[in-house]
Amino acid sequence: MAARPPLVALKDVRLQDGPRPLFEGVDIAIEPRTRACLVGRNGAGKSTLMKIIMGQVEPDSGERAVQSGIRFANVPQEPVITGDTLLDYATSGEAEPWTAEAWLDTFGLDPAKPAVNLSGGEIRRAALAKAFAEEPDLMLLDEPTNHLDILAIEKLEEELISARCAVLVVSHDRAFLNRVTQTCHWLEGRRVRSLNKSFNAFDEWATKVTEGEAESLRRLSKTIERETETFYRSITARRTRNEGRARSLAALRAERAERLKDVPRDLQLGVDSGALSGKLVADLKGVSKTFGDRTVIKPFTTRIVRGDRLAIVGPNGAGKTTLVKILLGELAPDQGTVKLGANLEPVYLDQSREGLRSDTTLWDALTPGGGDSILVRGVSKHVAAYAKDFLFQEGQLRQPISTLSGGERNRLLLARALAKPANMLVLDEPTNDLDMDTLDKLEELLESYDGTLILVSHDRDFVDRLATSTIAMNGRGDIVETPGGWTDFIRQNPGFLQAGVNPRPQDAEAARRAAANPAPASGTAPAAPKKPAKLSFKDAHRLKEIEGLMETLPADIARHDATLADPDLYARDPKAFDRAMTNAARARAQLEAIEAEWLELEEKKAALEG
Hints:
By secondary structure, the protein is of the alpha/beta class. It has four domains: 8-204, P-loop containing nucleotide triphosphate hydrolases (Rossmann fold), CATH 3.40.50.300; 209-261; 280-505, 3-Layer(aba) Sandwich (Rossmann fold); 537-609, Valyl-tRNA synthetase, C-terminal domain (Helix Hairpins). The protein is 42% helix and 20% strand. The strands form five sheets. A six-stranded mixed beta sheet has the order 5-6-7-3-8-9, with helices on both faces. A six-stranded mixed beta sheet has the order 14-17-18-12-19-20, sandwiched between helices. β6, α5 and β7 (166-170) form a beta-alpha-beta unit.
């Protein structure tokens, strides 16, 4: 079967960006009805290369061949919604109104909805509906899963797999790419390498390519060492000033220097889990929350202990952020109780990036109190050196934040959050706009983190790699908690997130118990005596006593710490200093012990109540 001519082909394309090329020698071809991904680090030039493919940017050299009459549709990384209504926007690219209405409905949007005050997810879904409605030959998608919830991502996957057009997508979402792609294009070191396989095969292939180039660079360095030694030891070279050999050596050194410029710098991530928190982090009993006539959280009970890695998943608007704020003690439930552990030092990374003012500079964002240094996990560090750890150039420090890309803004938020000691990390959509190398570094960091992690994410692969338990919210108030990550949750709770499919988790649990313990038939032997349904008087009394201590001990610890905070205490009264140290240590040890006892009694109580 003859190969189909490509819709668009680039040949030996080069584009200059400042003193060095952004990319050069780029060859890429997009064939009809193929689904390809374009991957690479933040700042490598992926978005710019997509614009060259569409003809929106002219390369400095090289050829762009395009089939006559080809129709493009584009969803940029940050779409701008125009028009009075979503239908106005969706038809602004000459899509037929009925087609635009159908696609808006497919992505769960009302065509008559005003095109203002939209959430990030609504903006993304509107841009996708517009692109599909235009019935293109080639659709280009730049980070299309950003701000989409898991159900919307799965809907997008289904539509792309059945689409009749070719697709070129830039994305960091591994699960998404694994499912939809057939071809991979990798922009790295100013060149594009292509793999005629799905993204499932990318990591192994990229590792082999990287190892091969590292070996090539090593051989080049060894050649330079030999030539340098020969040049300076050669009598001929010394006496006759062998200019040919000197030029050859200079060329080898220049080649190595140029290749080293293309070796990407690694992100330097670190985190300090700070002071040890209590064993108990949070205990929620019968917690519920309603806004107006909408129930966001039906009565829900859970317990988080130190070292847990909890993922919270569900559709946009399901109440994930509400639950996080209840867990942090920032929002009171309508019903139920919330008990927070002692010595919690949480750091909250908010997906909205509200902490970043676009008119301030990167320098100001890292040093809000002024000066030229930042306290990084208890150690003072110059702001330029710390910014370099997060791959920022010194020239970017005085630029306004509005000039940063989405990935750079997310790296800046990470830089600010990880500078503080924290025994509890709360990360709300931390993967948005980050490239895969940064994601891998973040995963490595969080895997070794010995504090408590609460992760709100729509990135299924990220959740699978990190979570030890998953709380799912379906948007109708129902909540279910499952050991493991996303894949474990889906396997154990099929259809839970779909409207009207699953019963409430409490009802499902009751049905499972009934099936496991059927009622005895008439005439059968009498059932064994029932176990006690509540704690013994002694255990109940001890539990009440412990709960009282858990209320008073943190205040005692804070009082001793305040005494020790006096810088002159030791010089003035060494015995008082020693007493305060001993009392603080004793109170902390007592709190740790009674929290462990409290957890044992609570688990015993829950088992008895069945």
